[in-house]
Amino acid sequence: MKAVVIRRYGDAQVLQYEDVEQPKIKPTQLLVKVRASSVNPVDWKIRKGMLSLLTGSKFPKILGFDVAGDVVEVGSQVTHFKPGNAIYGSTSFPGGGYAEFVAIPENLAVLKPTNLSYEEAAAVPLAALTALQALRDGGNIQTGQNVLINGAAGGVGSFAVQIAKAFGAVVTGVSSTKNLDLVKSLGADRVIDYTRQDFTADTTQYDIIFDAVGKRSLSQTKKVLKSNGIYITTLPSSETAVQSVLTAFLPGQKAKLVFEKPNAKDLLYLKELIEAGKIRAVIDRTFPLQELAAAHSYSESERAVGKIAIAVAN
After folding, report:
1. Closest to 102 in 3D by CA, of 29, 50, 53
2. N or C, which terminus of the chain has less Cβ within 10 Å?
């Protein structure tokens, strides 16, 4: 099969499109013909070696956590899928989605939302699961709460706006001037242009501040966070790591560092929201698998709005 592999850590040019052996599935896995994948910042952070303590020095590696495609074979212990099913889901760490075929654990996949294309479906898993778990599990989001999403036009942020609205929150989205209309279209009740206004100098108080781009900290946002409010980020820093530990044992404001945990139950919940028209995928550009290096470079530029999709097969 064709796949994009890396044989060392480095810049986007280490991504090589070549022939590799098709994966063999375990009893609990599905073999999926990949129709589409997507780019998440964690992909190029792995590629650059920024997470080498976790990913190790064994090569070659195939990256890519998001997958949408068709089941072609099921393991002997698989009970919920059969060949021909269109699915979307997550690969096991550290990836595997940038290929024509991938082996996926049964518990990391669900049937694809019927109202999404493969490219749209592949844009969902990691980013939307991150947003859902940050707001629901990290923030214990409740109907009527004031929620601010910093980075509301990004991959995680665009889903976070919609998910917060689905939970009945009053949502403020922070983005650049050119993306304000998009953020409004996603359901934000109020938008802030960060090039003209610093939300931390505002008078509005928030129950939850979800910093989807890791640009702020609890100490920088505490003036606009309610006394029992929660600051959430998914991008670790030494300051946030310390604050999350300290505030866990103290009354008052909390700092939460949330890491996405892929699972079928949450993917199914997202599928239901998508099919009910409450969530949609925002795709900035779609690149063919052969041009993955260009897709990574575009993601690294931090200019992308929503997600970058990768078309793998027709």
Report:
1. 29
2. C
